[in-house]
Amino acid sequence: MRNHHVIKQVVKHKQNKQIKKGEGHLRWWQLSLIGIGSIVGAGFFLGTSLSIKTAGPSILIGYLLAGMTTYIVFSALAEMTVNDPQEGSFRTYAKKAFGHSVGFMSGWMYWLSGILIMSSEIVALSTFTQFWLPNIPLWVFSVIYASLGFGINLLGVKNFGQIESLFAVVKIATLVIFIGFGLMFLLGIISPYDEVSKSSAVVGTFFPHGLKGLWSALIFIFFSFGGIAVMGVTSSELKHKRDIPKAGRGLIIALVTLFTLSLFFVMYLVNWKQIDESESPFVTALSAFHIPYLDSTFNIIIISAAFSTMVGTLFSISRVLVSLSEDGDAPKQLQVKNNRGVALKALLLTAIGLSVSIGCSFILPDSIYEFVTTSAGVMLILNWLLILGSHIKLHPTYQDQKNTYKSKGYPYTSWIGIVFILLTISGAVLHANERSGLMISLALLAVIWLCYKLFLQNK
């Protein structure tokens, strides 16, 4: 047993040495594109309808607030990653800062939230594909898209990075074109076929439902940035670890700019009251222009966005499963990888969890999106809390190291981020469906804690 323990420590030491040497495949811009691919999905192209309905034009403030908080969280994660590279990323830092139980909770929270995100993206994919093929059951499309997603992950890290980068370019181009379209309308270069009502973001009531409306919408808005943790998980594959802050800054500046400008023009082109959660707000905004094949075009865009997010989430949560396995917090078989570096059994366990989640989605089709978005969002940003808490506690350990990277504003920025996150979670109590999603997430957290108490507390 002692020899086995020694061997395990030697292997882990070698893995950490490889991480520190920077033996990865990805460049910083590829990591930024992977981040965009994992973040910009159906949650933005479709889910923003929920935010607009709840908060009206004030969601623009919400996106600026969420972008600032995301930057704070990433800066904290980047500091820990550059100074102490760990394949387990945020869950390893949580374990170092607060002990084994918190590291266990963090990893399994991330995995469960990823399962929920993937199921919501697959349901969105299936629903939008059924637009062209209405007679084919949704479950058929779900199987097809899930199989394609797992197939891409089986190709390995290098191919995954190339495919996700391509999807990210498509998403960026779509938002840039839409912003350009809105700008031409603003300048009078183009005009709609039908008269567009502009009594919305610019001249209407900015807080139609008061501050309470914005407060309750924050969970959906923050969910739009939820995939930021994939940057930490994937950073072990970065060629030069010192480029992590650069990758994050580029990502967040691009996202906040694209999100806020595109939503501003959505509400400039159409009265926000006309936006309905059953349709993408971008389609609603452009409908007055009678653009040929608009529905099909945006269907393709939303499908590519949702598929890319699903693939990126699958990649990151599978890597977290491997990290949990290496630390003894999951079955040891999950860490075994093939010659492409793919942990097949970790993918298999994820496939089982995804199947259960998708099954639940079809049982409760009317309200499942809000339930899933809220519960996944709560667990995601609870991990943000742990990242900031870990940063506050571990930051002093980097002070004596040479050539360290330090995030600016410590510890005030981290505490500000914690306040904003707690404000966001508390807002979920104000809305009935969000409240149900919050209860689901708390129930899942209780299950994780119970599993730790039963199986690992005495190890």
Automatic annotation (TrEMBL):
It is a multi-pass membrane protein. The chain crosses the membrane at residues 28-47, 59-78, 98-118, 138-157, 169-193, 213-238, 250-270, 300-322, 342-365, 371-389, 410-432, 438-456. Keywords: Amino-acid transport, Membrane, Transmembrane, Transmembrane helix, Transport. Gene3D superfamilies: Amino acid/polyamine transporter I (1.20.1740.10). It is found in: Cell membrane. PANTHER family: GABA PERMEASE (PTHR43495), GAMMA-AMINOBUTYRIC ACID PERMEASE (PTHR43495:SF5). This is Amino acid permease.
